[in-house]
Structures are given as structure tokens and as C-alpha cells.
TrEMBL record:
Its EC number is 1.1.1.100. The lineage of its organism: Bacteria, Bacillati, Actinomycetota, Actinomycetes, Kitasatosporales. The active site is at Y140 (proton acceptor). SMART domains: PKS_KR. GO terms for biological process: fatty acid biosynthetic process. It holds the Pfam family adh_short_C2. This is 3-oxoacyl-[acyl-carrier-protein] reductase. Belongs to the short-chain dehydrogenases/reductases (SDR) family. It comes from Streptantibioticus cattleyicolor (strain ATCC 35852 / DSM 46488 / JCM 4925 / NBRC 14057 / NRRL 8057).
């Protein structure tokens, strides 16, 4: 059965791979994007998840055009890397407001329909940095680690209504963000990954598609690493 799916930040990279994987599985997929031209083939809704009113408008449009959201993938996020002593309050709070509070906004809105339907799938996209830490990413690491506590609290809160809440924690993925690294930086990173390669966005998407499927109906509160072994033991 085709479900109504929403992927935030689904216009590129990991988010676009997730949107395509769920569409290929037969779902009706909507994506949010902040700027530029969205990819074709999806219901694309412009939305900045730091703005409550934009989130509300986006959900209303999705509900009108493809029905209440049954699967939410909270993928939208930003980075503003800086060493702690140089990091401004704006650099810290803006990252947390997008990655953590923004996820709160979209999840809260999505659960309105899921609670009525007594079913739903929520998948939050975190990062290996949430588990291992990374110098210069205190803001990003804090925001992504917060998603784990958020998801596990919701898993306990919403489980009785057959709503699952899980986290996928990617490692280094071959996207535009990692392609700007120098050759030396890429080699240094590869040396710390047991599988000695970057993930493809499609490999992250496969884990999300599984967690959103009926096969994962008894999995909730889980953190699934897709990191080539980089974060093992954390």
C-alpha cells in the first residue's frame, strides 16, 4: 500500500537518496527544501524548519495533496564548524535550532496524524559525530546527540500507538559536503574507517527504507550506524 511520506531536506545528498528509495518502494513522497530548484518526481514544498509557521504550511500542503504523513524522515540539517573558543553563540544556537529543535517541530506536527491513525514510522538522521565526537563540531555533535535522547524518549511515549521512532547515524558519506575535502583530509578519514571507503547515499537510504518498512515493525528506539565501523563501540 502506498503511504504518504515526508523527507525533510530531501532535495540533495542523503535526503534525495532516501526520497528516491521510498518512492521506488511504492510510497508517495514529499520533500522539503529551503532554496534552489527541487528535483523532479516528488511533491516539493519549500520550508525552513526553523520557522514554525513554515512547518505548519508545509504539512498542510502535503496533507491536502497526498494525505496525512505516515512516514517522516527528519533529515534536514546544517553545519557551522568552529573551534569552541572561536565559536559564537549564533553558530552554536543556529545549528541546534535547525538540527534538533527543527526536528522537534516536524516530528511534533507529524505525530498529530499518526496518533489518530494509531500507526506511523519516524526516522531521524543523526551522525557518527553524535557518538564519537569531532573537534570543531561541538555544536553539530550536541545537536545530533540530542536526537538520540529525543528519539528514545518518543519511542517510549508513542510505542503504545504503534508508532516507531528510530535513528540512523551515518558516518562519512560521498556527497557534495565531503567532496570539498582535500586529498590529505580524505586519506586521513579513510584510515580511521575499517571498511576503508566512504558510504554512498544509497547505503544510508537502504537502512532508512528498512526502518520505515513492515519488516521493522518491532524495532523502536534503535540507533543504526551506517559508518563502515567508524563508530563501533560507542
Amino acid at each position: 500500500m502506498s503511504r504518504s511520506v515526508l523527507v525533510t531536506g530531501g532535495n540533495r545528498g542523503i535526503g534525495l537518496a532516501i526520497a528516491r528509495a521510498l518512492a521506488e518502494a511504492g510510497d508517495k513522497v514529499a520533500i522539503t527544501y529551503r532554496s534552489g530548484e527541487p528535483p523532479e518526481g516528488f511533491l516539493a514544498v519549500r520550508c525552513d524548519i526553523t520557522d514554525h509557521e513554515q512547518v505548519e504550511r508545509a504539512f498542510k500542503e502535503v496533507e491536502e495533496k497526498q494525505g496525512p504523513v505516515e512516514v517522516l524522515v527528519a533529515n534536514a540539517g546544517v553545519t557551522k564548524d568552529q573551534l569552541l573558543l572561536r565559536m559564537t553563540e549564533e553558530e552554536f544556537t543556529s545549528v541546534v535550532d535547525t538540527n534538533l529543535t527543527g526536528t522537534f517541530r516536524v516530528v511534533k506536527r507529524a505525530t498529530r496524524g499518526m496518533l489518530r491513525a494509531r500507526k506511523g514510522r519516524i526516522v531521524l538522521i543523526s551522525s557518527v559525530v553524535a557518538l564519537t565526537g569531532s573537534a570543531g563540531q561541538a555544536n553539530y555533535g550536541a545537536s545530533k546527540a540530542g536526537l538520540v535522547g529525543f528519539a528514545r524518549s518518543l519511542a517510549r511515549e508513542l510505542g503504545s500507538r504503534s508508532i516507531t521512532v528510530n535513528v540512523v547515524a551515518p558516518g562519512f558519506v560521498d556527497t557534495d559536503m565531503t567532496r570539498v575535502l582535500s586529498d590529505d583530509q580524505r586519506e586521513s578519514i579513510l584510515g580511521s574507517i575499517p571498511l576503508n571507503r566512504y558510504a554512498s547515499p544509497e547505503e544510508v537510504a537502504s537502512s532508512v527504507r528498512f526502518l520505515a518498512s513492515d519488516d521493522a515493525a518491532y524495532i523502536t528506539g534503535a540507533v543504526i550506524p551506517v559508518d563502515g565501523g567508524l563508530g563501533m563501540g560507542h
